[in-house]
Amino acid sequence: MRAATGVTNAQASTSGFRNEAGFVARRVAGVHRLGHHAPVQPAPPPLVQQLPQRRGGSVTSAPPPPRLAPPRAHCVSTTPGGEGVEAALGASFDGAELVGGSGSYSGSLSSGSGGGSSSSRVREKPGWKRRWTMIAMCFVAFLLCNMDRVNMSIAILPISQHFQWNSATIGLVQSSFFWGYLLTQVAGGVWADRFGGKRVLGFGVVWWSLATVITPIAARVSLPVLLAARMCMGIGEGVAMPAMNNLLSKWVPIKERSRSLSLVYSGMYTGSMLGLALSPQMIASWGWSSVFYVFGAAGLAWYAWWDRHAAASPQDDPAIDEAELRYITRNTASAQPLTSIPWRLLLSKPATWALIVCHFCHNWGTFILLTWMPTYYNQVLGLDLKSSGFFSVLPWVTMAISANVGGWIADTLVERGWSVTSVRKIMQTIGFLGPAFFLTQLGNITSVSGAVACMMASQGLDAFSQSGLYSNHADIGPRYAGVLLGLSNTAGVLAGVLGTAATGFILQTGSWKQVWGVAVALYLVGTVVWNLFATGEKVFD
Q1: Model pTM?
Q2: What is the reported pLDDT for 58?
Q3: CA distance 243 to 203
């Protein structure tokens, strides 16, 4: 007599998948075979797929689940606390496949009501995140970057008096920083994408900090030695932005990118404020050498913190928890280092040239304001040097605040379903047209309060560029974010050097209205180019 054994109802199958920890699989006991009695098979190991394990900073996948006979019904947990199972397992069951006999079953197992995308089930534990530590350390690095950069603009006055330098020599010393800064924009991006942002940013901070410390010594040796020291400082600071962009492209998910980049860049504005505020007091108390020794030593102290707690990517971080690791890796680019840079491909895309052209247009006006602002206050408004220095700090305050406000607005729009392309274009258009409008007003304003208000509004709206232009490199090419920023920032540095020099020539025969007119024209060109050719979609894999 032919007989068959087996469990043929969905309730038995469901109960076989439940235990105290969650789901446990049990082989369906028996199969139908014509003319033969099939023996009962022993129960296989649990169906629960183990979470990935990290070994030495890398992630290794668990072995695949056993191949089982197909269940007769979907197995959905109905036990209380199903959400806890989901949180513990994350996406371990995504794409799980149960195979047996000639049939197969592919699908996802979920708790509670079931369904939903796999990314929505990847949840993080509450508390401080490792990526926030990385962002905080980058913020401090950029704060130190601009503190070390602006201290010379204050210290140059007593230094030039001490060594009896003329204005041409002062200009030479001030510009020597940019010689090195220009050299490492692209190189810094290549190094960061190839060797990792942690090493390159750490190298940059140590390099420029040492150059800062030896600046007083170099000045007392000879002028050429001082110029070499300032050039070395520029070399170190030149790698900072590409390296930081590389790091955050790996650490920060797309929905958090604008506010994270804005926060880090606001470290530069905060550093300028602190440098301009502290340097006069330190020089008055301890002499002009003190600002270089103290600021440089702060950078070396930062490196000790960085070397101990930073990682080039989440996969290389032994302190990150599994939930945050899964969340980041599902929403960021590959952490694999580059072995080659596809230069021809990068330079063949309109999106790359939109970055390059618009970075040039943006930095022309920005550098003019930052370098010539005290002179404008003194020559046009008749303020003394102390008052000019004080009012020069205020635009940095508005930039630090509005950069973070713009970042939160941009990320909120993305989270609410706006396309990244639309958000980037809106934010950068504000960053171009806002300064353009207020610079046109400066030619008609003669009051101190009106001029300062225009400067603050211009630079405050300029900071929205952090959520437009400066966030776009990681959008179009996450793996090449450092190289792309190096390319565009090279154009930006050129604009700063040329714009600063051109302003001096314009003022010899022209007026400040012409200076502002050139900057406004470039802002308008940048607006058109950006809205025609920029995109927030990934262009390079």
Answers
A1: 0.65
A2: 43
A3: 10
